[in-house]
Amino acid sequence: MVPVKVKTLIVVSAPAPSILVLQPVEEPIQPGKYRIVPIWVGANEAAQLGVALEKARFARPMTHDLFLDALTNLDARVDHVVISGVKGAMFFARLTLKQHERLVDLDARPSDAIALAIRQQAPLYIDEEVLERASFPYVFKNESDATEEIEEFRSFLAELAPEDFEE
């Protein structure tokens, strides 16, 4: 199992799917180059993930809050989540609850399991085989890289002349 974190949630208006982006907590493949795992989620799932990520609170409990309240009253909590499988674009997750010394393993949609784990600050993991099959390399640029790139482009534009386009 490889620890992962939520890198970002890209929310798109329906009917297009939103994207939950997970990033392994690991050394970069190359400087600035990491692997990411995009998981497509529906609008409702994205909303629930957004609420969890923003730590939003409402006057009445949302479904995930109700579930966690029930767990608390049963002396249980979310122990961890594992993204355990992938078939095509469909991901599978295991939600592990802990009640005293007993672990309870449940099949869950990744969006629900991750929304619960975020609310309880429980660790997220991905199966190594799933990571290999579903991840993509991605380069994260830091702000200084972007600033340098913009300056290089401005310099290029300043030196550009109409005759550069003649054949």
TrEMBL record:
Residues 1-138 form the BFN domain. Gene3D superfamilies: Bifunctional nuclease domain. This is Bifunctional nuclease family protein. It comes from Gordonibacter faecis.
